[in-house]
Amino acid sequence: MGSRPARSGVTARVLDVLGAFTAEAPALGLTDIARRTGLPLTTVHRIVGELAAGGALDRGDDGRYRIGLRLWEIAHLAPASHGLREAAMPFLEDLHEVTRHNVQLAVLDPEDPAEVVYVERLSSRDAVSIVTRPGSRLPSHATGVGLVLLAHADPADTERVLARPLRRFTPHTVCDPAGVRALLARARASGFVISDRQIEAVSLSVAAPVRAGGGPVVAALSIVVPAGTNPHTWVPAVRAAARGISRALAS
Questions:
Q1: Could you tell me if 202 and 227 are in contact, meaning their C-beta atoms sit under 8 angstroms apart?
Q2: Is residue 166 classed as helix, strand or coil in its secondary structure?
Q3: Is CB count within 10 Å lower at the N or C end of the chain?
């Protein structure tokens, strides 16, 4: 990630500093943060010091900073993660217990529908390795959960995503807007998505929508299994778990 123009205002600058940390770069030095935010090093030093004093950042023995426990505690109060996760956990745990594969729950970023945010992930030692974890992000066009969410998003948001260059992760990633639109139409018609080796060549995912009762789609549930597995084997279980969460959200 390169530098970007810094925004004015104390709150905006604090958010810029926190936003410099990503799943790919969870530990950063002051110079790294300054480069990623476009803020002066003196400003970064002051903000980071205040965040560290409040527990929002932790400074490691190597001198680099990481997201602190206090920030995680606050983040888990967000309705998108707290209420949804609370309703979903029994169904995620049941699906994971039955399949012993990776089970994930994600929402679309309301500010940037080009990305999904993972609310929860359950895994096991023998499950295929994946890059996601709670709080991490991936592009919506290349993930099973993302395609589900884009299929049911505001059409203007979907078109805004497809107007951008779409990142290719593997030779199987669908980066052509017409191809993505075809996947979204299929998702709406079938009620599920099979995303085959689009993020990693070793895995595929089966995803289904989670609704707020009988209303709009608010999240997506997926199972990630090794590539070469018959994905249709898992469709009934994934859809049943997604419907269970939807009923729980309505109660």
A1: yes
A2: coil
A3: C
> Pairing mode, if any, of strands 203-211 and 193-196?
antiparallel
Number of residues that make up the chain: 251
Task: Write the CB contacts of 230 (distance below 8 Å, at least 6 apart in sequence).
Answer: none
Average pLDDT over residues 135-142: 90
Given the DSSP bridges, would you call strands 137-139 and 193-196 parallel, antiparallel or unpaired? unpaired
Q: Are 52 and 69 in contact (CB under 8 A)?
A: no
Predicted structure pTM score = 0.73
Cβ–Cβ contacts within 10 Å for residue 190, how many? 13
> What's the CA gap between 60 and 18, in Å, rounded?
16
Residues 179, 134 contacting (CB under 8 angstroms) = no
pLDDT band at 31 (very low <50, low <70, confident <90, very high): very high
Q: In Å, how far from its chain's centre is CA 117? A: 2
- Among candidates 58, 54, 83, which has minimal Cα distance to 68? 58
Edge-to-edge strand list for the sheet holding 102-108: 137-139, 115-122, 102-108, 217-226, 203-211, 193-196
